[in-house]
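Bit of a strange request maybe. I'm writing a small parser for structure token strings and I need a real example to test against, not something I typed by hand. Could someone generate the tokens for this chain?
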Amino acid sequence: MATNQAFRPATALNLSFYFMRVLSLPWLDRGIAAIACLPLVYLAYYRYQHWHHGLPLITSAVGVLILVGTMIIRRPPKRVTPNPWYWLLAFVATYWQMLVLGLLEQGHPLVSDWITDAIAVAGLLIVIWARLSLGRNIGFVPAQRELVNSGAYAYMRHPVYTGGLLTSVAFALRAYSPRNGLLLALGAFWYIPVKSIVEENFLRADPQYAAYMRKVRARWIPFVI
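Reply from user aminoacidic:
Good idea to test on real output. This should exercise your parser:
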């Protein structure tokens, strides 16, 4: 009996290790990123043509495409989390908009179009700024690559999430319904605060990143929070 009990945890550990090794294969996650862009493009185009969600929909889709699509050329990590729950969180948070876009309703606008357009454009510009600042140092699971502390990252530690939040807010205001509000709020929750804090808890083990956290206090809004 003791032998069987010792064998089961060891087997589970080996399976978990093998599973993580498979998921870590560069061609696999890059392939997933490339394939995942296809349904996003189709659904965004369909809703733009039939529901006329305008700039909030376009900026939200383009922001996701920029982040997911450019993962194909990212730099290999120096250290990556082996925690399978972090991997699951990263997958859900990264692909949330793709997963729920088919569930969103047409909704109705809560404010003038020029307000939602301005918020959407501001969000996309922040995403682009943050993405250019990162260079090849991007990934969807907590991983240590080259530390970036310039550009957008000189003012906030998670500017990509800030930009994504703004485009989601713009879309929610342009196409409000209880279902849309709930789905978009859940998407924002995975990033702010859950994924942000999980990433920082992993990265702060690096003295350089810990020093960066002390220097740049704001996570999402410069000089505020």
